[in-house]
Amino acid sequence: MKRLVYNILLHAGAAPVLLLYYGPKILFRGKYRRSIYGKLGSLPADIDAERLPRPRIWFHAVSVGEVNALQPLVRETRELLPDASILVSTGTETGQDTAKSVIPEAKTFFLPLDFPEFMRKVVQRITPDVFVLMETELWPNLLHYLKASGADIVLANGRISDRSYPRYRFMRTFFADTLAHIDLFLMASELDAQRIEKIGAQKDRILVTGNTKFDAVRSDMESSARERIARLVNLAPAPAVGRRAAPMQGKKRFCSTPTPRPWGNFRTLSLFLPRVMWSVPRR
Question: Does 66 qualify as catalytic in the annotation?
Answer without folding.
Answer: yes
